[in-house]
Amino acid sequence: MLWSSPETKKDRTAPPLSSNAIETQGFLTKIVAAVAISHGCNDMIQATLPAIYPLLKAEFALSYTQIGLIALVYQITASLLQPWVGLYTDKHPMPFLLPAGMGVTLTGIGLMSVAGNFMIILLASALIGVGSSTFHPEASRVARMASGGRFGTAQSAFQVGGNTGTAFGPILAALLILPHGQLSVAWLMVIALLAIIVLSRVSAWTITHGHTQMKRHSTTLQPLARKQVILALGVIGVLLLAKFTYIASISNYYTFYLIQHFSLPLEQAQYCLFAFLAAVAIGTFVGGPVGDRIGRKAVIWISFLGVIPFSLLLPHSNLFWTIILTVAIGLILSSAFAALVVYAQEIVPGRTGMVSGIMFGTMFGIGGIAAAALGKLADLYGIAAVYSACAFLPLLGLATLFMPQTHRKAG
Questions:
Q1: What is the pTM of this model?
Q2: How confident is the model at residue 336 (pLDDT cuts 50, 70, 90)?
Q3: C-alpha pair distances (Å), 194 with each of 99, 191, 248
Q4: CB within 10 Å: which end of the chain, N or C, has fewer?
Q5: Can you state the angle between helices 118-145 and 151-172, rounded to 10 degrees?
């Protein structure tokens, strides 16, 4: 079977393992790869929204505020349901929610391709958001199930799949959608169908082996006191606010900034956005395994404090250095997310789905609210003001000082 062979090394002195025993050993590369690929499909579809904002703005004569509202509707629907989906599936597992949610995304894509006015665009954005909200908590849980105890590495691989899809979204838009118009958005339905097929196989594996795998590699950390958990979650909230407000400023408005500030053609601006998003994917991939080795807090410190010089220089740079600095920002700032997710899962054990839903939901919620607020700021004061205002956000990373340290149980 496609999912039946985990990647693990056998002890030569040990007796042969039965097939059932083999199923519960080690880091399951095929399962992690499957959820990462489906995450890439999911986020590639979603990345077409900001990538086609200039097309929608021109075709429907939208303001920056309306562009921000499209992002807000998508991000809010993608965020509000996630914790509730995760909480429910922690108690009542629903593995086939993965392909079902992708079916909702498929419907949203079709509607977006034929939308004739602003309200229909908002409805299509909402459907894509609902599909995303059902995907992330359960898919993140599956990645943890298949981690073999290497939680940061599995979460990083899962997340980098999404970031890779997000990075290629603007390229796909530049090559396929922008030259041929709104109707060509329908080609993304092929990607959604591919994801549905992969997720159906993942769901079948989860029913057969997933929960045994999760139980075998459950956390061995000392539980934190209630006050420490509350403090830790508060700090995580501050860090997510800083990280994803900054990410939203670039992913939603970077092309407009390059076009207006440097007179860059739209297609070239999309490639610059791709470079930033590719850097985000690489940083995410590196952050998880490093966190497994040196600790979650160390990665978070490096991520936030390391990006401060680049964010402060960005608003005052020419085109060449703007591209270089945004790549550096994406690379460094993105390395913290896998560490934050795994840290949150460790301090609230037994609630993997709910915690994943809160983390991804907060990510989308902050991104949506920030996109709307930054759109209003751009309308009032110009697009350059967005980057001047966001330059100081990484300083909020100093809140990491207050994060409680997690410790392994003795024995």
A1: 0.64
A2: confident
A3: 10, 5, 28
A4: C
A5: 150
